[in-house]
Amino acid sequence: MFKKIYSTIPIPYEPWDGTLPSFVYYDELITPPKHYIETLYFPFSIINKKEATRNGPSTITLLAATNIIQWPSYSYESWTFDGVTGDLVTRNEISGTVYTGILHLESLTEGFDGSIWGAYVTGAIKEFSSVGNGIDSVGDSILLSHFEGASDTKIPLVDKVADIVIMPGSLSKLRVYALSSGTLQKIINVGGSPIAICAEDGKRLYVLGSNFILNLVDYSTGEVINSYKCPSSPLGTSLRLAWDRVFRRLLIYDQVPDAVDGSSLTRIVGYYPIPLATHITAPIPLKVSRKGRTVPVLIRVVGDVGEPITGAQCNVTVSGDGIIERAPIGSDNNGDLFLSLLCVNPGTVTVTVSTTVDDGL
Amino acid sequence: MALELLAGPFPILDKDGESLSITTGQYNPKAFYDDEIGVLAFSSGDYTVTQLDGKAYRRSDGSGGNSGGALVLDLTDQGKRLMFLSPLFFDSLFDFNKKSGTLKDIVIDAETSDLIDLQAKCMDRYLSVQNNTVKAQPLDLSTAFMTECTLVGYGSGRANLSRTREADIICLIWPSGHVLYYDYVNKVQAPGSAFIAVNYGAWYSAKYDIFVMLTPQDPTQIKVYASSVLPTNISNPTAFPGLVKGKMSVISVTVSGANSDKCKNEMIEWSLEGPGELVTTQSLTNELGIASVKYIAPLDLSTDPIITATLYF
Fold first, then answer.
1. A307 touches chain B (CB under 8 A)
2. pTM for this entry
3. A306–B226: do the CB atoms touch at under 8 Å?
């Protein structure tokens, strides 16, 4: 679990004005109490850009496909939000040469160098110029067959400077290729079958598995640096990640079902990527207790994949036949706290431990 | 010597409080205890981390070829790293990221089941411990496992290996509950022994100086044992030399466990009824389980004093 530090408003839909098109698609969208002409279908990408708004230095853009009630029953939209307030700055229909073949477009992913790469279900990737109102292709498609032994091109993460592209392999693997030659350079095992990916700083990336395990990975060494539980909803199916380089937060798009009236409940949420405590273990005495003996007691603070929580402050109270000789200060790198308990009489001692977790917004 | 239970048994429960069955095995230990992480195992194919109180977390899926493999102790880095022996044919050995539950670089691809007995990697060889035999195999697998030491006081089956606070010593714990120590540098049995309990896996914790055990049932549970013996017997006090008017005698008791094991560092409280004086009222048992106090008899000692030794739990 991460601390939630940012949220956009729910992705705003256009209300239905009561006018019926000549043929109505998805009539459930305007069947009362629902009254919006569109609903989110699936996301291509969330992109963080350094561009000033009246509130701050950055914006966050969602690129997504929608289902709509009029012909042709689908649309491709971009919503841009203020990076500080989360309010909507602008909304546009996606345009540019990306529109050609967009029916087969599976994802758009921002690379380490800021380049944008589209992945197609037909098995190809292609670079695009920019994000906003117009998205234009820069180069030709690179086919799946270009990459040695590749089985899947979805969510390609490119580092043009290093001439690298990282793509999911079979099962819980990332495959690292030379972008230019397609030579397989490395296979990295991760915690789950990748469904979303984003570049962090340097050579690091976040990859999200279908089991909602989130790994921070250094692709240059192949090392999985950390494991976390993705703070997604239980119903979340279409997820996208982005690393906010301005505010150093992890942005997660987690598509959830619309409200009863048809309005969207989906937001882009920013998290401070330091795990929070979700469990304090039962106190474990490390020596047998005897009258007059000081017994060290182990307490471990962990997050929601059992990862250690460092620096957690806990309140400890003791009742019964013992007293606290030395209270723990803060958890160490393994999440461990040590309580010194003096057993003053034969009998039992009850140790109660609690901590306060600020999960943000 | 029977070790004293500190905590547990704790059922292994997932985040929703549902019982979780982790993979254990006596032939190829599929679970492992690590001080930094907890009990590492696989559950329904997922790599699972369980804390000492039984709280379990899935940390990676096993679909990357992980499910059912065995974890191997890597002693080349003070035992802090683990390796992974591939399942089914036990023919590939990988470096293992214990934090994420993911495989790293392949170390050996034997293409045969030659690695099936492998339990630990040293600087110069691999180790395997079964019944009373410590066997070794060169890192290049040029020869088969060969006996390098025969142990005394061993258990039956394949021992679980864990590092200790001594850099050259590893702890061996058999499913039968026998605990021995082995100097893997000098290739000799190290002093010390203990008995924990019949188990599905048990390990010594070098950081906490405790033993962690999986109970022999399905679903298994976690128990935590002290490294000290559970006292079950305290002898009657004896005096040496015998009580003499105006002289000092040393009064002693011996504290022992169920198998007459000596109990160290137990606090004995002394009390006196009758003439004379005890120099102190408390003393600790030594490595032989003996606690002593000095008694000074009065010059007019006429009746025997009653000296009582009490061990409080």
1. yes
2. 0.89
3. no
